[in-house]
C-alpha cells in the first residue's frame, strides 16, 4: 500500500543510521544515533529496540503504516535464525536480535550482515542496478565484500561467504587481524596503506587519503606505496573474478572516495592480469554510507514477500 513503510537500522561500532523507508525504496525519514557500544551489548540491544520502537511510532504519527523492520549489524550474523552471533566492535554474543525486535514492535523483522545488505542495496538501488552479478567490496579499516546475484546476497554455509579481504595475496606478508599473513586486507585496506607509508617514510599520522593526494602530487614514495596497494588489490580481484565472474565490481568504503585515483589504475592492473576471465566493470558505490540502512529496509520488505 502507498502508506506502508518499514523501519530500518544499520548498527555500526559507533553510530546507527536509521530510517523509515517506503516499499519503492524512497526514504521518508532518516535519523542517526550513537550505538553506545562502550556500555556493553545489553545496552546496545536496549538502544536498538528503543530506536526501532521510536521509528515505528514516528511512522504512525506521520500517517504511515509500519509493516516490518530490518536491522543490519557487523560481525558474524546467522540470518536464518536472526542471531547476532559475534561482533568485535559492538560486543554481541548470540543475541536473538530479530525476535527481540519483532516482539518489541509487534511486526515481522529481519536481521542481516551490514556489508551483505549494503551490497544488496548497491545491487538493487545503486551502482549495480543494471547488472545481475554484482561483487560489492567495501575498503576501509578492513576489506569486506558481498556477492550479490539477482539482488540476493549469498551468506555461505557459515555466514562468511565473499570474504575477499582474506584472500592471501602476499604469502608471508604483513600480519592480518584474522591471524593469517598477507591477506588482501593486510596490504590494501585504507589502514594498511597508511601504515605502510608511515613505516617507510618515518612520518606519523599519514592516512591512505593523504597517500593518494601525495601520489597525485607526484611524490615518489607515495606513488610506490599506492602502486603496491593497487597491484595487491588487482591480485585479489583476479581471484575474486575467477570465483564469481562478476558483471560489475562496486567499490565502497572510505578508500573508494579516492574515485578515479583508485578505479583507473585498478582497471589497468586487473586488465593486465586477466587471461580467459572476462573483465568486470569497476565502479564506485553510489549510495555512500546509507547503503547499509537501505539494505536493512530491503531485507524487511523481503520478509513481507517470503511465504511464512
Ligand atoms: Zn586475514
From TrEMBL:
Top-level taxon of origin: Bacteria
Keywords carried by this UniProt record: Kinase, Transferase
Coiled-coil portions: none
SUPFAM superfamilies: Actin-like ATPase domain
GO MF annotation: an example: kinase activity
Gene3D superfamilies tied to this protein: 3.30.420.40
Family: Belongs to the ROK (NagC/XylR) family.
Protein name: Sugar kinase
